[in-house]
From TrEMBL:
Domain (NadR/Ttd14 AAA) ranges: 3-169
Residues spanning the signal sequence: none
Domain of life of the source: Bacteria
Pfam family, any one: AAA_28
Name assigned to this protein: ATPase
Gene3D superfamilies: P-loop containing nucleotide triphosphate hydrolases
Xref: InterPro entries: NadR/Ttd14_AAA_dom, P-loop_NTPase
């Protein structure tokens, strides 16, 4: 199975591209950070990302989802973010790189869990705030730079997905990976 990553700055359109790919027949794995935020906010923590334990919670859910995402030979699966994104988030927030995060980064590198080419969904030039996304456009650009540096530092190659209509962005990804594998005749 080939595991490709979608990454980029918050609000760049990763999830929309992921939904398009899913509807086109590809297997997808959801982002973990948004779900950790939603759960902790439901538990009464208004800004869970301010607690350094947030990083390990995201890494744990990412690993659980990655390990649960089994597939057949030739299948292409897309992951919305990875532990490298969590590393970039820790750097951005000024949180320490925990031993758990460091081990996970070493594991995904040693096991070659993800393809070396990462689809980097570039900013459309604005950010729409949500409960989980409370970042200004200017800060999103700083976060974007940190992401690019993190992926390069861990040996990945970012394939830029330029701003534009959703169909064009998704088509750029599909041109790179080919059509989804079909199973069951």
């Amino acid at each position: 199975m080939k595991r490709y990553l979608l990454t980029g700055t918050p609000g760049a359109g990763k999830t929309a591209v992921l939904r398009w790919l899913e509807c086109a027949g590809y297997s997808v794995v959801e982002e973990a950070a948004t779900d950790v935020i939603a759960l902790r906010q439901a538990q009464g923590v208004p800004e869970p990302w301010t607690d350094p334990s947030f990083v390990d919670a995201v890494v744990a859910l990412q690993r659980q989802r990655q390990e649960g995402a089994v597939g057949g030979p030739g299948e292409v699966r897309f992951f919305d973010r990875s532990p490298v994104c969590t590393y970039a988030l820790a750097v951005y927030l000024g949180h320490p790189v925990t031993p758990f995060l460091a081990r996970e980064l070493n594991r995904i590198r040693a096991e070659e869990v993800y393809e070396r080419e990462v689809f980097f969904v570039e900013s459309p030039g604005f950010v729409t705030p949500t409960e989980a996304r409370r970042i200004s456009y200017e800060e999103s650009l700083r976060f974007e730079r940190i992401h690019r540096e993190a992926y390069a530092g861990f040996g990945y190659v970012c394939v830029p997905i330029a701003p534009g209509p959703l169909a064009d962005r998704a088509a750029a990804v599909v041109r790179h990976v080919g059509a989804p594998a079909r199973y069951g005749g």
